[in-house]
Fold this sequence. Notes:
CATH topology: Porin
Distance between the termini: 29 Å
Helix content: under 10%
Strand order of the largest sheet: 4-6-7-8-9-10-11-14-15-16-17-20-21-22-23-25
Structural class: mainly beta
Shape: globular
Mean pLDDT: 90
CATH architecture: Beta Barrel
Low-confidence stretches: 1-19
Strand content: over 45%
Number of strands: 25
CATH class: Mainly Beta
Number of domains: 1
Radius of gyration: 23 Å
Order of helices and strands: HEEEEEEEEEEEEEEEEEEEEEEEEE
Amino acid sequence: xxxxxxxxxxxxxxxxxxxxxxxxxxxxxxxxxxxxxxxxxxxxxxxxxxxxxxxxxxxxxxxxxxxxxxxxxxxxxxxxxxxxxxxxxxxxxxxxxxxxxxxxxxxxxxxxxxxxxxxxxxxxxxxxxxxxxxxxxxxxxxxxxxxxxxxxxxxxxxxxxxxxxxxxxxxxxxxxxxxxxxxxxxxxxxxxxxxxxxxxxxxxxxxxxxxxxxxxxxxxxxxxxxxxxxxxxxxxxxxxxxxxxxxxxxxxxxxxxxxxxxxxxxxxxxxxxxxxxxxxxxxxxxxxxxxxxxxxxxxxxxxxxxxxxxxxxxxxxxxxxxxxxxxxxxxxxxxxxxxxxxxxxxxxxxxxxxxxxxxxxxxxxxxxxxxxxxxxxxxxxxxxxxxxxxxxxxxxxxxxxxxxxxxxxx
Length: 410
C-alpha cells in the first residue's frame, strides 16, 4: 500500500526533464540501454473555442463545416458562442522489453461527443512495427494539420479515426522511406444531407477497407502517397447491394526554419466517408439509371502556409476545395422542397470552398492564443425530371465566422 501511495504521489508532482514532455510523468528507476524501462504520463490540451457567426447558417455548428451549410436556408442572424469541448485528455505509456524493443500505448479523449460528453479519440498499442487499435486512418497523413483555431479543417482533408490493424516498416535499410499496410474498420455513419437525399439506405458492412501508404521523409519535410480500396454495402429498393470504391491521396509538408507549407490532394470514387465536411453523409454511392449502385466520384485538395513574423507571432493562410458529383442518378429527393419532389434521371454536383487567415501569438512556451477569419461557400447544382417536366436549380450559400481561442497543454 505504501508503494502505491508513493507512485501516485510521484505521478502528480513529477516534472518532465524535457520541456516538451508532459509535466505529469513517471519513470522507473531501472533502465535498458540508458532509457527508463517504464515511462507513463498524463496530460491535457486545454482549448477555448469561441466563435462569432456573421452570416451563413452555421450557427448550430461548433466547427466551420461548410458541408453543413443549408443552401436553402435564410437565417443570416448573428451568433456568439464559446465552449471547452475540444479539450483533450491523454494517457501514454512506454515499456522497454528485455531486448530493447519498445511497446507504446495511448488512450486519448475529448468532450466532443455531444453536449460536452466525453468521446474516445485514440486507443491503440504500437509494437514491433504493428499498431493495433483506434487512431488516424492511414489514407490520411497524420503528420499534417493546419495551425488553425476552428476544428473541422479544410473540406477535402482526411482526418478520420478508425479501428485498424496496421503494419509499418522502412524499405530495406533506408530510414527515409517507409510504407504502411492497414486494414481499417469500414465507416458506417450515415446521416442525410439537408438538401438532397439519394434514397438509398445504410447496410451492414462485410469487409475491411484496405489501405497502402508510402512516405519519404527528410530534414526539409516529407512527401506521402496512399491508396484505399473499399467494398461498400448499401440498401437499394430494400435489397442489399455492393459496389467498389477506391482513392488516391498525395500530401506533404515542406519546412524552412519555423515556416512551413502543407498540402494534400485526394481523388477517387466511394471515398466521401473519409473526406472532411461530407464524411458520414451517405454519399459514397448512388443509384444509377441502369438500376445499379455506383460509387460517387470526388476530387479535392487543400494547402496551408504558416509564416513566423517573430519567434512568437505567426500567421496561417489556408484554402480548400472539394467537389463530388453523381451523374445519371436514377432518383433523388429534394429534402427542403415544400412539394416533396422526387427527381428522376438527373445529375447532382456539390462544390465546397474554404478559406482561413489567422494571427497567433505564443505567449508562453505551452500557451497560444489567436484570432481567425473563416469563410466558406457551398453550391449545389442539379437537374432531372419531375412530374414529366425537366427541372434544374443551382442554390448557393456562403458563411463567415470569426473564431478566437486559447490553447494550453501540460
